[in-house]
Task: inverse folding
């Protein structure tokens, strides 16, 4: 899954000091990096060979990216202009149908309700993840050594848990008959929950999915937040406290401004990541009940692959990619502004 | 700092509650895997499996094709990680150490590629693989997994290479090494921890991959995540076996992750610059 790579991508060589730290080290190391020592030439001299060298080194990566990433991307676009269902697939027919798939989708109320649902789903998740992660990060900074270690272990386990294993465990926790969650709710006096089928309702299915995603994503934010907090000089807190600032004031006037790049970058990463989350939504209840928990990626997959309307599925995919592209463009604008080095 | 007893206690209480919240599903997975069936299917949950059993692990391991899926997962994952390490090391060296036209654009492409929406590109990948007669094969899986971890690998190795002081390389070249020799003899050994942790992260990513294998491979071409997700269906309400399967799938990753966090923290060049 791409999930993990995204979630760890911001880690610098010193894991644990993630987003903020890496942005800073990158900026700091920037000066030295770009300026390859043109003066240090040895026997082979500065000829054509050494001018070509970087391109030769990049060649395999470039070829791989074009063939394995560029081509599927182009292919998705091409497929979205085709009438490609089971029949055409089996007979290897290519039937171009222009913008028909798009027209069909853009006038389909279901597409728009899936889109709206995906947006709300993303917002709810990201708000919970950011607020939860920030608070836990602050808590980590506040705790003594031993308790910090204990909490870190818990966070680490949730973060490291493979997504598919986690979804399986969550369906067991929320199992109708023998699930421990229903038992606890029953014990707490909510007896109607004793035999509740969580997968029978749109909202309760979403509840499980969101809990799962938040549970797995909060550790990343919390660790980064904590790492960022350790980079804030102690004097800043002390100065603020001398000025009589309370906890909220300190957060607003010291912590947030120092870590603003972190908040921006992480929020966007989480938005992009949740928006395209597939495994959790699909593996918990396959978009059910009655298609009511389909988000865009799941919708594209189910229409395209399971429904065998590959052209339609691709059109949904392209529309999803466009939305993600807009989010990513914004993210990169922020990132590039932050590090003029790149 | 002076605080009341209450002020000192509540963060710890919250920490314990949160610890339980985060660890519980993992614990419950492992605990259920070891429980007797009548402890799993019981009106009051058994929280600690005192009379444990390995029976569920036996069931999971003896499930049809289990070892095929393990082999599939290993081949696709290890192949992908090794290939991406080689390709990424070359590219990372170029962008970390060399100045050339197009460097910025390449870095930007890497950053974008890192966020590639694989989840919605699966249909295209399916059609491409089908047209090349490669459904139910490990070849496209290995290739695409390689591509999934490649940008991240380049990105991380780039910072690892950049972290090796340039002086080390330069002094090797002053001593008569060529650039290639300087890389192999000086930088490469220092990169070992970086290569290690990068490849482990890549391993975890590929090991967990689900959407692509879901559309590409069926029957004997499945990998472990796909097997696990269908396990529930195949074994119905045998939660013990399902949790045993989950545990076997998750434990390597959990161990790697903990190991990574501890191992990778050690400074890279702390010792190297001393001499």
Result:
């Amino acid at each position: 899954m791409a999930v993990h790579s995204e979630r760890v991508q911001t880690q610098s060589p010193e894991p644990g000091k993630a987003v903020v730290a890496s942005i800073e080290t990158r900026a700091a190391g920037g000066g030295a990096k770009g300026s390859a020592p043109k003066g240090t030439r040895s026997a082979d001299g500065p000829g054509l060979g050494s001018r070509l060298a970087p391109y030769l080194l990049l060649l395999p990566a470039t070829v791989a990216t074009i063939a394995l990433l560029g081509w599927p991307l182009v292919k998705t676009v091409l497929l979205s202009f085709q009438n490609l269902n089971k029949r055409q697939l089996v007979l290897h027919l290519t039937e171009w149908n222009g913008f028909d798939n798009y027209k069909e989708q853009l006038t389909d109320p279901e597409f728009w309700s899936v889109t709206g649902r995906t947006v709300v789903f993303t917002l709810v998740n990201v708000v919970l993840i950011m607020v939860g992660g920030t608070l836990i990060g602050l808590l980590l900074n506040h705790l003594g050594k031993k308790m910090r270690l204990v909490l870190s272990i818990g966070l680490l386990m949730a973060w490291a848990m493979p997504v598919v294993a986690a979804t399986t465990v969550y369906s067991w926790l929320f199992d109708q008959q023998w699930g421990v969650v229903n038992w606890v709710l029953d014990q707490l006096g909510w007896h109607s929950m004793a035999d509740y089928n969580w997968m029978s309702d749109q909202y309760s299915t979403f509840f499980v999915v969101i809990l799962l995603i938040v549970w797995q994503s909060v550790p990343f934010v919390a660790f980064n937040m904590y790492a960022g907090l350790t980079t804030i000089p102690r004097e800043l807190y002390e100065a603020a406290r001398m000025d009589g600032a309370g906890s909220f004031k300190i957060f607003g006037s010291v912590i947030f401004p120092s870590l603003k790049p972190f908040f921006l970058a992480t929020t966007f990463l989480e938005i992009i990541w949740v928006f395209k989350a597939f495994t959790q939504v699909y593996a918990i209840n396959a978009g059910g009940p009655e298609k009511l928990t389909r988000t865009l990626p799941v919708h594209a997959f189910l229409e395209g692959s399971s429904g065998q309307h590959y052209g339609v599925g691709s059109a949904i995919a392209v529309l999803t990619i466009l939305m993600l592209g807009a989010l990513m463009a914004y993210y990169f604008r922020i990132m590039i502004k932050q590090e003029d080095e790149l | 700092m002076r605080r009341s007893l209450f002020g000192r206690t509540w963060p710890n209480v919250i920490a314990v509650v949160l610890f339980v919240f985060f660890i519980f599903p993992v614990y419950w997975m492992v605990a259920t895997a070891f429980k007797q069936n009548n402890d799993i299917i019981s009106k009051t949950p058994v929280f600690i499996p005192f009379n444990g059993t390995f029976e569920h692990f036996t069931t999971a391991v003896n499930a049809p094709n289990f070892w095929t899926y393990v082999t599939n997962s290993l081949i696709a994952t290890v192949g992908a990680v090794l290939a991406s390490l080689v390709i990424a090391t070359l590219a990372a060296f170029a962008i970390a150490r060399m100045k050339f036209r197009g460097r910025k654009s390449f870095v930007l492409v890497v950053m974008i590629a890192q966020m590639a929406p694989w989840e919605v590109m699966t249909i295209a990948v399916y059609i491409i693989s089908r047209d090349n007669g490669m459904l139910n094969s490990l070849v496209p899986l290995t290739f695409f997994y390689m591509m999934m971890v490649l940008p991240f690998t380049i990105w991380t190795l780039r910072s690892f290479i950049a972290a090796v002081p340039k002086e080390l390389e330069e002094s090797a070249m002053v001593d008569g090494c060529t650039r290639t020799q300087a890389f192999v003899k000086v930088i490469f050994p220092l990169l070992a921890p970086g290569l290690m942790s990068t490849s482990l992260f890549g391993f975890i990513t590929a090991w967990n991959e689900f959407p692509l294998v879901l559309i590409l491979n069926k029957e004997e071409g499945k990998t472990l995540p796909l097997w696990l997700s269908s396990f529930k269906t195949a074994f119905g309400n045998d939660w013990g076996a399902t949790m045993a399967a989950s545990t076997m799938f998750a434990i390597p990753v959990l161990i790697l992750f903990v190991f990574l966090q501890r191992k990778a923290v050690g400074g890279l060049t702390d010792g190297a610059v001393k001499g």
About this structure: Residues 124 and 256 of chain A are 21 Å apart (CA to CA).
